[in-house]
Amino acid sequence: MRFVDEATITVRAGNGGNGCVSFRREKFVPRGGPDGGDGGDGGSVILRASSRLLSLYDFRLQRTYEAPNGQGGMGSQCHGRKGDDLTVELPVGTQIYELTDDGETLLADLSDPETVFVVAQGGRGGKGNEHFKSSTNRAPRFAQKGEAGQERSLRLELKILADAGLLGLPNAGKSTFISKVSAARPKIAAYPFTTLTPNLGVMIDDADPEQRLVIADIPGLIEGAHAGQGLGHRGAASTSSTRNWCASTPTLASGCSCRW
Description:
Layout: E1 6-12, E2 45-50, H1 58-61, E3 64-66, E4 86-91, E5 94-100, E6 103-110, E7 116-120, E8 151-158, E9 164-168, H2 174-181, E10 199-204, E11 212-217, H3 234-237, E12 244-248
Parallel strand pairs: 1-3, 2-4, 9-11, 9-12
Antiparallel strand pairs: 1-8, 2-7, 5-6, 5-8, 10-11
């Protein structure tokens, strides 16, 4: 799977169902009165951090997420069904920003596994006409409409939560190192900038399998990366939540000079 650390999506919560205008009509029950039921609430969109995911690649393929609407009310005081909530799983370390005309605002930071955040609240269902009967209005012929669900445009940014990050010049041996100490198989070649996106490797202690060390292989950095030289510093920016940094320095043979 390709590593993608940023994506833009749209989430829409379900609309609430409309209330019902109905009157009780049964044999031997004259003037049964209003019995319109309430509409169901719309489903909400919930974001949940999952340790199973390592990339935002799936959100480049599907960009719209909609929760179902609530069902409208019915006669005989039957309420409409509530729309099911839509749960969207995101990698641990994802930051959610809301995009508006005035800029963007940080809504949540899913830094811990199983963290949940309701990003779009479903609309409330409308009340049926049975709620509006009174001594002065015994036959209300109106009901309340359901409320619209929230809709938001979001920018997702993944911050890799690694225990150690490898920084260094191109061809410094970072990918080779991570391939030797973990099961990761990054691309290794004899030319610069082989690593285009960060690679993750996991070291497991043989004595205690529960003890693990996550290592991030960062694309090569050169002088002027902050100004866009080489691959820039975006790869390092996506790993800003890394706990420790390790510098990888190549060993040059005598008479060789580093072009960087």
